[in-house]
Amino acid sequence: MPLIETVDLCQKYNGHDVLKKIALQVEPGEVLSLIGPTGAGKTTLLRLLDLLDTPTSGRIYFAGTEVTRSGKTRSETRRKMAFVLQKPVVFNASVYDNVAYGLKWRGITRNELYQRVSGILETVSLSALRDRNARTLSGGEIQRIAIARAIALEPELLLLDEPTANLDPISISRIEKLIANIIHQHKTTIIMTTHDMRQGQRLPNKVAVLINGEILQTGSSRDIFTSPHNQEIAEFVGTENIINGVITTSEEDLVTINTSGKIIEAIADYPVGEEVCACIRPEDITLANSQAPSSARNSYAGKIMQVVPIGPLCRIEIDCDFSLFALVTGRSVEELDLVRGKTIYATFKATAIHIIRRER
Amino acid sequence: MNEIWQGLLEAIKLIVSLDPEILEISGRSLWIALSSCLLASVICLPIGGLIHFQRFAGKRTLISLIQTFYSIPTVVIGLFVFVLLSRTGPLGGFNLLFTPTAMIIGQMLLVIPIVLGLTISALSGIDKVIPDTARSLGAGSFQTAVVVLKEARFAVTAAMIMAFSRAISEVGLALIVGGNIKGFTRVITTTISLETAKGDLELALALGIILMFIALVINLVLNQLQTR
Q1: What is the structure's pLDDT at B1?
Q2: What residues of A are in contact with residue B150 (Cβ under 8 Å)?
Q3: How many structural domains is chain B composed of?
Q4: Residue B93: which CATH number?
Q5: Most B CBs within 10 Å, among A75, A97, A157, A191, to test the B interface
Q6: Which of A171, B10, B41, B156 is paired with A129 by a 20 to 30 Å CA distance?
Q7: How high is the ipTM of this complex?
Q8: Is the pLDDT reported for residue B200 higher than 70?
Q9: Where are the alpha helices (DSSP H) in chain A?
Q10: Angle, vertex CA A100, rays to CA A94 and CA A104, nearest 5
């Protein structure tokens, strides 16, 4: 039985559909990452799941019981969950008291309260600051307090809304480690939102893509990132090469696509004449100074338009009558002498291409 | 000019020598103003919370109305309480007119709009995420209200201090419902008014200095609260 399930959940604000028929099932112990651009409805969905707001229509089930509207069930159920809000605020009290609030409301004895709060502060490395007013702490420390006071409640379901938004890289890494630790040690069911698709890939074991109030795809992070269902998802998950074309031949799952007069071979099953997009991840493209014989079905000569260093890698833009982006190491750039204006051969395998039907 | 300096000197002597009449009048003033403010706070904090947390039609109008009453003339409240407590009035049977109790009731009515209005403002100033955070951590409606009130504690205390300064410095209401009876309802402001009319500047000035001192203390406390 799913721990939390939504059926046709809709939310409207001022006549505008913020969430459209959301159907979500999260099993106990599962970690789900809701990814989507800003304004997609992620926070609205989490607020509904935490029963802070009431949906316009649809139903929410917690451990098999419907909790959508009944006042008493809602507050009882809310106590089985903990929600770390986006841009969390701390109460104007000490770090210790901030973490203790939720436990006090649950009538925990003083002794147990002390044990639990002290233990959690140790976990989030905030013991040294226990008596400091929480308002005087940094953004990263406040975020850790927010997570600490949530996990102190030992919730069945932990909801995290953009837990690393607006934080510096060190704080982001600390918070991610903390979340990974919660997943590993407590086996807590977690639903977290993020607009950082890489974070969605790093942490959870299941990903749902929420765009314009609709869940467009659910699956493993690998599925989402390598085989997006449509162009919108492909663009969101950072598939930089989305090449428009038309299927010209189709034989035993091998298709050829005409794009700007060039032919691309890919593994897919689409009829001839279908308008499609060929998605190729930039890291799947190899570059060479000459066209050497290879098993890869696609190789094109093109002119380097731009070389942009990104950390240890370089992003190369090539014009092969269609734009192609490749990601190579800085060392390869030096060895192959990849400079603007040079002609280069870009090669990729037919299996590295993910074909999606083009939306009109 | 000489007369004023002489009066000021005499006034300081009265204060330094802890003149019994000065102490008695000042004590009564403080007690009446404090009691009225505490009563007003007991009434206004829950009502203010209720107005802030509940959604209802005409909420904005009600808040505007409350704010309008901030500057109601003290004599108007005095007249209202006088009519209410006079022998022929609806509460005449309690024989409260010209007693400190009548003054407390009057001052309480005077400061209720201030405490109520400023409490609502204080609660509105709290980040909207605070009540959501409390609820998400499992707080019920009452616990959420307590959390928000706690967050607004400095602003709410400032509201109570503002109310106290209005109560202790008013004169019209104290005269009308207290009657300025020596040893019974005479307070700092009514004494200053009477003694000035009589030409006895020493006592009036001494009480004036005490009133200024109280105002100074109020200001210092308010400043302290605002820096929190």
Answers
A1: 67
A2: 91-92
A3: 1
A4: 1.10.3720.10
A5: A75
A6: B156
A7: 0.79
A8: yes
A9: 42-49, 71-78, 95-105, 110-123, 139-151, 169-186, 197-202, 221-226, 231-236, 330-336
A10: 130
Q: Both tokens of residue A297? A: 């079905």
Is-contact A172 A196, C-beta < 8 A?
A: no
A135 touches chain B (CB under 8 A): no
Mean pLDDT value of segment A25-50: 93
Q: Return the DSSP state at A245.
A: E
pLDDT grade for A3, boundaries at 50, 70 and 90 = very high
Place of tokens 């008014």: B193
Whether chain B has a CB inside 8 Å of the CB on A197: the answer is: no
3-state SS assignment for residue A97: helix
Which structure tokens are listed for A244? 């428009």
Q: What is the mean pLDDT of residues B169-193?
A: 95
The strand pairing partners of A7, in sequence order, are A59
Nearest partner of B191 among B170, B207, B209, judged by Cα: B207
Distance from CA of A147 to the nearest CA of B (A): 11
Q: Please tell me whether the overall predicted TM-score, pTM, comes out greater than 0.90 for this model.
A: no
What residue numbers bound the domain in which B81 lies? 2-227
Beta-carbon pairs below 8 A across chains A and B: 49
Tokens of A156: 């069945």
Residue A5 C-alpha from the chain's centroid: 20
Calculate the dihedral angle through the C-alpha atoms of A238, A239, A244, A246, rounding to the nearest 10 degrees: -140
